[in-house]
Amino acid sequence: AEKGVFDNMSLAVMMHSWSGGYCIPNMDVLSLRCYVVEFFGETAHAVAAPWKGRSALAAARKFLDLIDARRECFTPDVHVNAVILDGGKAPNIIPDYAKIRLEFRTSSMARLEEVDDMITKCMNGAALALDCKVTKKLGSLDFADMVRVEPLEREITLIFESLGKKVSPVLPPGGSSDMGNVSYRCPSIQPHISITEKDYALHTKDLADATLLPEAHEALAYGANALVQLSLKVFNDETFRKEIYDEFIRKRDLKLNK
């Protein structure tokens, strides 16, 4: 997507497995950025000469404390999660190195930059207070939120219903997907098709086991059918193709400036 492969395309579409006996027209997702944050201090014996040390672990902990202090002012779309990957090797040694892996999610790429600024301030503030140095680097490529194109969602809903499938409204964003990156480049959609009547959460062993059931294999065929029908509609209907592209541009520009 970054290299322009999807630029000026008329449609990008994929299907996601789901459960509960109903399909969903699209998957709304959050943007996500991951950082590996490293703090550097000075080692010292924790009893013999602690005043000679500068604790990288204390700086890392204060960094997380500062983020927690800001949580009460987060908008509902902001989620920040972190783990300490390295906090020292022995409790009687003040650690000169600590490493944190942190992810944060927001409702749009524009909001992602705002939260990035907040994360950076907390990081630099903790390092300054504990006389440590700090660096950050991306732990993975960014995941973008989803630019939703309503005409595509309406059409896939009609297709699902023509195949005898029950359809539920799009759910609030609950995760992230690389389909979001594609959706900033061209009209995109990621509908969900139910593979079992039982209701399982995504990315669980129960749902993984359900993919082996005969009804899941049948759902796979229905999903392929739906994707083909939607693709042919875009390919053959110039008016529809222009409608979804115009809506894509409008929604993308709104998100970029939100």
Helix content: 25-40%
Return the string of H and E elements.
Answer: EEEEHEEEHEHHEEHHH
**What is the overall number of helices?**
7
- Spans of at least 5 consecutive residues with low confidence: none
N-to-C span = 22 Å
Major sheet: 4 strands, antiparallel
The backbone outline, from C-alpha atoms, is: elongated
Strand order of the largest sheet: 5-7-3-8
Protein model, in words:
With 258 residues, the protein is of the alpha/beta class. The protein is built from 7 helices and 10 strands. The strands form 4 sheets. It has a 4-stranded antiparallel sheet. A two-stranded parallel sheet has the order 1-9. A two-stranded parallel ribbon has the order 2-10. α1 packs across α2 and α3 crosses α6.
Brief characterization of the structure:
With 258 residues, the protein is an alpha/beta fold.
Question: What are the key terms here?
Answer:
elongated, four-stranded antiparallel β-sheet, about 20% strand, alpha/beta, about 260 residues
Write the layout of secondary structure elements.
Blueprint: E1 12-13, E2 16-18, E3 31-40, E4 44-45, H1 56-70, E5 79-86, E6 93-94, E7 97-106, H2 109-129, E8 133-138, H3 150-162, H4 179-183, E9 188-189, E10 192-194, H5 205-210, H6 214-236, H7 238-256
Parallel strand pairs: 1-9, 2-10
Antiparallel strand pairs: 3-7, 3-8, 4-6, 5-7
